[in-house]
Amino acid sequence: QVQLVESGGGLVEAGGSLRLSCAASISSAHTYSMGWFRQAPGKPRELVALITFDGIRKYGDSVKGRFAISGDNAKNTVYLQMSSLKPDDTAVYYCAAGAVRTETPDKVSYWGQGTRVTVSS
To answer: What is the mean pLDDT of residues 95-109?
Structure first.
């Protein structure tokens, strides 16, 4: 069983920055891919970014060029640096981990509890 602990959400003004962290309790085959999804009210859960153990990265189209994902394999931790934030980025952000590239929710084996990000205009 893998537990994912998130931190770093909060309230920020448009144009500002935030950094999210997600630490996995153990390293296993199910933490090959780690990353973030987000879900706004009334909208489906969507990929924000993922990074694999061997360094492959993928971003959702709406965050390309503004967000950057990185990982520390020794700490089983991934980080999401969010810059140039917009009100449309407001959502609950969920850390996700899986044994394959976690590009869609059905590929995710474990979810974090979620952290809220609110961007004010």
So the answer is: 96
What residues form DSSP beta bridges with 82?
A: 18, 67
Within 13 Å, how many C-alpha atoms sit on residue 34's CB side?
Answer: 34
Predicted confidence (pLDDT) at residue 27 exceeds the cutoff of 90 = no
109 Cβ partners below 8 Å, 6+ apart?
Answer: 2, 30, 97, 98, 99
Give strand ranges (E) for 40-120: 46-52, 57-59, 67-72, 77-82, 91-98, 110-111, 115-120
From residue 29, give the alpha-carbon distance in Å to each of 1, 36, 52: 11, 18, 11
Q: Using CA atoms, how far apart are residues 121 and 111, in angstroms rounded to an integer?
A: 29
State the sign of the Cα–Cα–Cα–Cα dihedral 73, 96, 19, 7.
Answer: negative
Identify the pLDDT of residue 3: 95
Asked if residues 86 and 69 have their Cβ atoms less than 8 Å apart, the reply is: no
